[in-house]
Amino acid sequence: MDDTIAAISTAQGVGAISIIRVSGFDAIKIVSRIFSNKDFKDAPSHTIHYGYIMDDNDKVDEVLVTIMRAPKTFTKEDVVEINAHGGIMTTDKILELLLVNGCRLAEPGEFTKRAFLNGRIDLTEAEGVMELINSKTDISRKIALNQVGGKVSNMIRKLRDELALIISNIEVNIDYPEYEDIEEMTINKINDNLSDLENKIDKILKESKNGEVLTNGIKTVIVGKPNVGKSSLLNRLIGEDKAIVTDIRGTTRDSVEATLRLDNLILNLIDTAGIRDTDDLVESIGVDKSVKLIDQADLILFVVNYNEKLSSEDLAILDKLKDKNYITIVNKCDLDKKVDDDKLKNTVYVSALKDVNIDEIGKKIKNIFNLEKIETTDLTYLTSARSLAILRKVLDSVKAVRKGIENNYPIDMVEIDLKDIWNLLGEIIGESYDEELLDNLFSRFCVGK
To answer: Which pTM was predicted?
Structure first.
């Protein structure tokens, strides 16, 4: 990190302004070389300066230059931001001049990576930056903001502090057994403390499922036998003709995907091939895929016909859903009723063709996922797959230690295992990491962030 990096931080294209960001030891000196009649050597931190970017004696653009001196910057390095007019050619020309004068083009996410490596933010806060950029609803923005602000990190640090206290008490009891004024850490006390820690971790994991749903969306699969109106329902929900609709059975042979925003919920909708026995090779592949998608879904919209009795195909699908999160959509309610709906639950009666009761599906989904309750909670969740995987591993390790205690493991072996768990929790916030992990994480950021 000894070099100075530069990148365009605004979206490429024509706009009112563009921002070119520079960070590193020589940031101020390099920008001074291309700024009109101004040496920023003595410029105070956090000041804005008006002038021109120059290419020798030619004016490139009229700009505002913001000087920010270390350590009170995002990267904790000297940072300069050039606010230029938003033309593509002008912006590229300024970046070119910076590179010619000693900057290196920043890699994706390198500004945020430097902020992490220099101790400005931890790893969960860095992930929060990315989620804040990618947030699609107001509530996912709030969740990401809690990460950026350190609330998630503080939650993990409290778990580490509780574990550190248990470890330190064990060490004192082992190393200084002659002291009478220290708390005796019996096996039962350790087990009780770990039981409390286990409950807290389990609670965080359960609540973080809400965060996953609100941040990443609900994988929603539309299933049913052929010709019950799955594709028509998808088209009606998203308000466009995305899926092909005909009266021919087996028209949908592969899954069709679309996204629907439902207030603060994102539905990642997948329309599937009608599930039935078929000799058509291509259609049978689509049917197999539909069955697999049922197992992968967060929510299933099971569609049946209002004007038909439940068939063996309907009942077979219903049997596959008995342990799943699903809503039964009884379609074609504008026709004569023949469906034996006493066998169904979580039902919504609609007509995709006539646009009847489609809004009721959204209301039912909100109730299933307790959206109103979630929106009033603290919204301090772990949402990244990396963090959640580590915390699940921590929970399994705590359970294993408690089982070891019940099997009379030596106290010094328990202490070693607890230190390993403490280090695992540190991986969530980046107290320990490897370069490959960092490269993978920050490579998903945009250039200039």
So the answer is: 0.71
